[in-house]
Design a protein that fits this description.
It is built from 13 helices and 16 strands. By secondary structure, the protein is of the alpha/beta class. The protein is globular, with a radius of gyration of 22 Å. InterPro entries: Alkaline_phosphatase_core_sf, GAG_Ulvan_Degrading_Sulfatases, Sulfatase_N. It comes from Pontiella desulfatans. Pfam families: Sulfatase (PF00884).
Length: 510
């Protein structure tokens, strides 16, 4: 009871939504489609030339496309920032939590008793403050039904009570982040109940090799994404007379690559098998977006539903060309993702998944963190709109609150971009957004300012930073740190202040 009282208190102390839709009848359903490791350059509406994405492109043509939108640099922190409404540099934020523990049990490496002991210890160690408010709860307190399908965790391992604590009335999918790397799980979870998938037996969920040379469809019989799309369409039908917020963090197109069958457009291409599989995964993602849009139209929910599409972080290479990057620096020191900037346009990536940008997943360059964001709401959002408004995943919470007439808890970093969606003046906007990578061996953190300046942290211990003007140089080819030392100093102070900063949303006195 204490937990529910504290959560209610946090919401009662909330600030009114800044641009909320006033008439209750205008409050729409909201669907958030969240791709996994999909580079911004993989979509036709952002310049993709090889793989077709007609349904996602139609979302953009009938809605608004963001050109200055940021996720994270890899999975766990970017999901944390979306669900909390806080930037991922905040102290005590995301963290790993025993990923792979179910696989250890299922392969006999630990007993069921040991598994339960470890899980109980994890629950004690990974407690959530009673007054913390998550994305799903924002919709719940506005009277919405909430549902999540797919990759249920925000930091590697979760369980029924934890998913419900995040604000999901209904959930279906994977409790373990590591199991998500395979598309043929022997079982999934639905509202705390385990259910088996026909023909799947591998404890590693049919995970393929990184080379992607296995025969198509060899992981098992039942492909997880096909399970999720059926359940999503059924949920929409079952709740068509209620307001709902549906969140679908899909596995697609995260690797290793696996697909039940190659898309006919790519089966006969002169590509590697891994490239054909990857293109087919992207195309399946697009096809499923089309199925959702068609279901909304069939049910007469088209103009009553906001559909948003984005990805968690920048592009990742699951089909071979990483071998074209040297593993060492010229002096023999081990290379990392900031060396030579890992340009997909220059490494043999036939898709150029980062769309000419520097960097891939885990890097602090644009190709590692700049994400697509497309929002469609027929009759309210002007078709074919584009915006350079600076925003990030943590802004979705406040935007959702404005859309559905909910209130925002105090202390969140989230700022609503609903005015931008509706082509109205934006009363509040960020001076900068923060993207953090505390795995410095793999990449870098960054600050992106609204005037176009961007500071990239290369090595904090060595005081290595780079400065770019992404309005003029979004490919980050010209490091300007030497020309503008005062700008570097100013932005560095802000970035280092924000990294590991306390969370104002967890101060109960607010």
């Amino acid at each position: 009871m204490k937990q529910h009282i504290l959560i209610l208190t946090a919401l009662l102390l909330a600030v009114p939504a800044s641009f909320a839709l006033k008439p209750s009848l205008e409050r729409p359903n909201v669907i958030l489609l969240y791709a996994d490791d999909l580079g911004i350059g993989m979509l036709g509406c952002y310049g993709q030339q090889v793989v077709r994405t007609p349904n996602i492109d139609r979302l953009a043509a009938e809605g608004i496309k963001f050109n200055n939108y940021y996720g994270g640099v890899f999975c766990a922190p970017t999901r944390w920032t979306l669900l909390t409404g806080m930037h991922d540099g905040r102290r005590g934020g995301w963290g790993h939590s025993q990923g792979g523990l179910p696989i250890q049990r299922d392969t006999g490496k630990i007993t069921q008793e040991q598994y339960e002991q470890k899980l109980e210890q994890l629950k004690k160690n990974r407690t959530i403050p009673d007054h913390e408010v998550f994305l799903g709860q924002i919709a719940q307190q506005a009277g919405y039904k909430t549902a999540q399908f797919g990759k249920l965790d925000r930091g590697f391992l979760t369980w029924n009570e934890r998913v419900r604590r995040f604000g999901w009335d209904f959930h279906e999918g994977y409790y373990c982040h590591v199991r998500c790397h395979g598309f043929y799980p022997a079982y999934l979870w639905r509202n705390g109940e385990r259910f088996e998938l026909e023909g799947n037996t591998d404890p590693y969920c049919g995970k393929m090799s990184e080379e992607g040379n296995e025969p198509v469809g060899s992981g098992g019989k039942t492909y997880s994404q096909n399970v999720f799309i059926k359940s999503i369409l059924a949920y929409i039908r079952e709740h068509q007379d209620e307001r709902f917020f549906l969140y679908h963090p899909t596995q697609l197109p995260h690797g290793p690559v696996a697909i039940p069958e190659l898309h006919p457009d790519y089966a006969d291409q002169d590509w590697t098998l891994a490239e054909k599989k990857y293109a087919s995964m992207v195309r399946m993602l697009d096809d499923h977006v089309g199925l959702i849009m068609q279901e909304l139209k069939t049910l007469g929910l088209d103009e009553k539903t906001v559909v948003a599409f984005t990805s968690d972080n920048g592009h990742e290479l699951y089909y071979g060309p990483k071998k074209n990057f040297p593993n060492t620096r010229p002096g023999g020191e081990k290379a990392n993702l900031t060396d030579r900037k890992w340009r997909t346009s220059e490494c043999g990536d036939i898709f150029d998944g980062a769309g000419g940008r520097a960097g891939i997943k885990r890097a602090g360059y644009q190709g590692g963190m700049q994400c697509p964001m497309i929002v469609r709401w027929p009759g309210r959002i002007q078709p074919g709109t584009e915006t350079d408004h600076l925003s990030a995943h943590y802004d979705f919470m406040a935007t959702l609150a404005d859309l559905i007439g909910a209130e925002m808890p105090k202390g969140k970093d989230s700022l609503s971009y609903l005015p931008t969606l509706l082509s109205k003046p934006q009363p509040k906007e960020h001076d900068y957004v923060i993207v953090n990578n505390n795995f410095n061996r793999m990449g870098s953190s960054a600050l992106i300012a609204k005037d176009g300046w961007k500071l990239v942290e290369i090595d904090r211990k060595k005081d290595e930073f780079q400065l770019y003007n992404i309005r003029e140089d979004n490919e980050e080819r010209h490091n300007l740190e030497d020309q503008y030392p005062e700008k570097v100093s100013d932005l560095k102070k802000i970035l280092l202040r924000e990294l590991n900063s306390p969370r104002p949303d967890l101060v109960e006195s607010l």
